[in-house]
Design brief:
Layout lengths: L2 H4 L12 E5 L2 E5 L7 E6 L6 H19 L2 E7 L3 H14 L1 E2 L2 E2 L7 E3 L4 H5 L14 E6 L5 E7 L7 H17 L13 E3 L5 H9 L7 E4 L2 E4 L3 H9 L3
Parallel strand pairs: 3-4, 4-7
Antiparallel strand pairs: 1-2, 3-8, 5-6, 8-9, 10-12, 11-12
Length: 238
């Protein structure tokens, strides 16, 4: 197997590659241990580095928000557990950043010195680094299917509002059988899938006012879903 094959990344719609690994929270089997939940598997380049530290503080401060969205965070770098534990202890005991201090990371952080998991998920990208994982984010749904992938280079810290927005949008699309437009936030109008026949198109456009839809053209119609309804059905699941 050459380096190109070893660093191929899974694709959206694929089953999440399975693995077992030791973590700061004990041994896990992924994605099997999280069946029935969403999971976010993410990588960072290295422990005891400043961008990664800022990210873990942010992940830790938002962990409850992700739990309320029925989502488990799972971290990874190509460091070992002894390094992970020392770093997370340092974050909790010594780092005060943007008003966040005493952050206790409870989600698992994978020991991947072998790089087996990082290579299985295409997190090692030699043009960026052969010895560190890039900042990858894999969204895995309750059936173990990869639904979204986001990649960042080593130098760029992630936007956590966007990471959370993506999760809520995916869950909203599943729950209500809709799509979400550019810059969508809970409470904004959602996109209604286009009907399969011209007759259905005509009927939908004719009735758009009575069912709350707005059609910009035959292929582009939206409808409102109240933020409260999304909060009830999606954002408070646990």
């Amino acid at each position: 197997m050459d380096n190109q094959e070893m660093n191929l990344m899974p694709r959206i719609g694929d089953k999440a590659p399975e693995f077992e690994a030791n973590t700061t929270q004990g041994k896990i089997s992924f994605p099997g241990d999280y069946k029935g939940k969403w999971a976010i598997l993410f990588s960072h380049p290295a422990d005891f580095t400043p961008v990664c530290t800022s990210e873990f503080i942010t992940f830790g401060s938002l962990a409850k928000d992700f739990e309320e969205l029925n989502c488990q965070l799972v971290g990874l770098s190509v460091d070992g557990n002894s390094s992970h534990i020392a770093w997370l202890r340092t974050i909790k005991e010594r780092i005060d950043w943007k008003g966040h201090k005493g952050i206790d990371i409870q989600f698992p952080l994978i020991d991947d010195i072998s790089m087996n998991v990082a290579k299985k998920y295409g997190m090692i990208q030699p043009a960026e680094s052969e010895t560190k994982a890039v900042r990858a984010v894999f969204y895995v749904d309750p059936k173990g299917i990869i639904r979204a992938i986001v990649y960042y280079p080593l130098s760029l810290g992630r936007n956590f509002d966007e990471l959370k927005r993506v999760l809520i949008a995916l869950q909203t699309a599943d729950e209500f059988s809709v799509a979400t437009p550019a810059d969508w936030r809970p409470g904004d109008d959602v996109i209604v899938p286009a009907p399969g026949t011209m007759k259905a198109v005509s009927e939908r456009v004719a009735k758009q006012a009575e069912n709350g839809m707005k059609c910009y053209d035959w292929f582009f119609c939206t409808k409102p879903i109240a933020k409260e309804e999304i909060e009830k059905k999606v954002m408070k699941k646990g």
